[in-house]
Structures are given as structure tokens and as C-alpha cells.
Amino acid sequence: MNNPTPNYSRRKILKMGVLTATAAYAYSVSGISLMGKSWALSVTSLNEATANSLLQISRSIYPHPQLEDLFYAASVESIDASVASNPELRKALEDGIATLIKAAGGDWTSLNAAKQTELLQHVASEPFFQAIRSNMVVSLYDNPKIWPKFGYEGPSFSKGGYIHRGFDDIDWLPQPNKES
User: What is the top-level taxon of the source organism (predicted)?
Assistant: First the structure.
């Protein structure tokens, strides 16, 4: 008879652990990210189609190829929370996004960046665009998890300020001529 419960020796368990750790290390060193697949956009006020379009449009407004959609999704969820108590803003967002998607021919992601920018410039003064922009600038850039991706170490006050932590480390500029 077959035993339905597999026998794992200590050696097999250690071998599986080493293989798993090696694979995880290889993924991290090669730059492969599984992070983008482990989240779900969760909205309560906006419908799913509007929220997904908003995520794509937000990425076009603040394009950062090094950021996963996860960070943009957090901003969309923040916008969703703000429209929960403001039906006029929700309607303006839904109508504005629908107008942009229609102008894009139904698929925002199929447009090149120049065409997306052109369409966004046409609506830049609209209240729905300003609501997206103002929320995104705070919810996206105030996220400590993305700061390292931009080379920002975070606030320096708790570390004694910048004066002894690289205040004058300007190695990216040419050295000044000593004669001038």
C-alpha cells in the first residue's frame, strides 16, 4: 500500500530550504519582481473599470518605470476613499476618465506616451484632473516604501540632520577651477 503522507527526512527539508533560498536570491539579484502579482486593487466607491483606468492614467501623469503598479494602486485607493464622501467629485472623476478613455479610442495603454501627454494636457485644468494630480502627489510620493527607489533616505532630523551626513557630497558636479 502507498503511504499518503510523504516521509521527509531532515536532509530533504534542508535541501528544499536551500533550493528555495537560492531561487529567491536569484530572483532578487536578476531584478525579477514577483511583487506586482501579489496585490489586488480594492475600491468601494469607484467601479472596477474606472479604478483600473485611473491606475493607468495616474501612471501616465506621474511616470516612473521603476515603480510597480502596487504603489499607483495605493494612490487610486486613496482617491477612492476621498470620493466616498463627495458624490460630485466621484461623478467628475468618472466622467473625466470616461472622456479620456473615449479620446484614447477605448484603450489608454495602447497610446504612446506622447499622445497620452497630449490628451492629458487638454484636460489639465479640469477639476477631475486637478483632483487626481493633487491626491497623487501626496499619496504616491509620501510613501516611505518608494523613497529608496528614488535614492531618498527619508527625513534626516532623527539622524542628526544633513550637516554630517552628506550635505556637501556633490560628486556629480565637476570640480571647480581653483584659480577662479
Answer: Bacteria
